[in-house]
Design goal:
The chain is of the alpha/beta class. The longest helix has 49 residues. Strands 5-4-3-2-1-6-7 form a seven-stranded parallel sheet. It has ten helices and seven strands. Helix 3 packs across helix 8 and helix 4 runs parallel beside helix 7. It has two domains: 53 residues; 264 residues, Glycosyl transferase family 29 (sialyltransferase cstii, chain A). It is an enzyme of class 2 (transferase). Homodimer; disulfide-linked. Homodimer formation occurs in the endoplasmic reticulum. Belongs to the glycosyltransferase 29 family. Its EC number is 2.4.3.2, 2.4.3.4.
Length: 340
Amino acid sequence: MMLRRKLYLGALLGAILFLMIAAHTIQKTSFVFATNIQSHNEVRKNLLKNHTITEPKKHRSCSCASCIVDSGVSQWFDQRYNSKQKTYLSGRDDDIDSLSLKWWLSLQASDGTIKDIMQTMFKVIPPPPEDETLRQNQCRKCAVVGNSGNLLNSKFGALIDSHTTVFRMNKAVTVGFEEDVGNKTTHHFMYPESAIDVRPGVHLVLLPFKLKDMQWLSSALSTGEIKMTYMRVKNLVAADKDKASVMVVNPSFFKYIHDQWTERHGRYPSTGMVAIIFALHLCDEVSVFGYGADKQGNWHHYWENNRYAGAFRKTGVHNADFETEVIQKLSTEGKIKLYR
């Protein structure tokens, strides 16, 4: 009896001892496992701390705060803008596509062939340099200055002159109006009937509305033999013809503006409309001055008091009202800054 009781107590003590050892082993294993998890988390945290995750840089077309050609900002703009469109003639055989050429030749009748006339023209002027295109590491800020009377007393002169590039057009006058329109000019748009002399260093930009206009350019920079188109014109023009400063807007560019921007309103786009779209293709930021009527609703040039100056709006050649809507839309979409 005594022996049986001793055996029972021994078995009980053995069971208790076994349970104590087992509990200690489980606790130790849990500690090691938890330590491993903690060590792994610390390693991962250190790796993340030492390795900064950077988002890939978004491609930008210029170094300005905002760039005109960046897509995704305005669906309306993206549907119309074609960055591959050639803005000016370079003397290459493929400068003008056949459809655009046919349309352009139909605007105003002229004698001669485009090939012969262009060959003659590029003997008088050298092809413009290729660096007129946009570059990613630059911020080219341009001012397009119209001739509206709304520039009077605007005091925009200093602001206009602060731009990298300043486009003016036709018979624009700066002398005596510097406080309102500035004095700087880098590009001057004209056609035979609106031609003036340009200062050294200024690009003469010809708007050829007909073949005769290219013939006139060759003559005006050399012999001066052409004195008439459909009216008497300036037969000689002062310009830096030997410094690749003369540019001729591509007829295909006219067609592109007519189809995509003015949506075939009017027979063809106006000088002012061409100048703005031209700037959109050569510049990263565009500011527009001197477009539209003055505060009294009159359409006239800032240097003259001509109550008939707005008559062109009713000719049907250009649709000034629709062009005004397009310009306003460009401003609303954030593609130009419109000053009035």
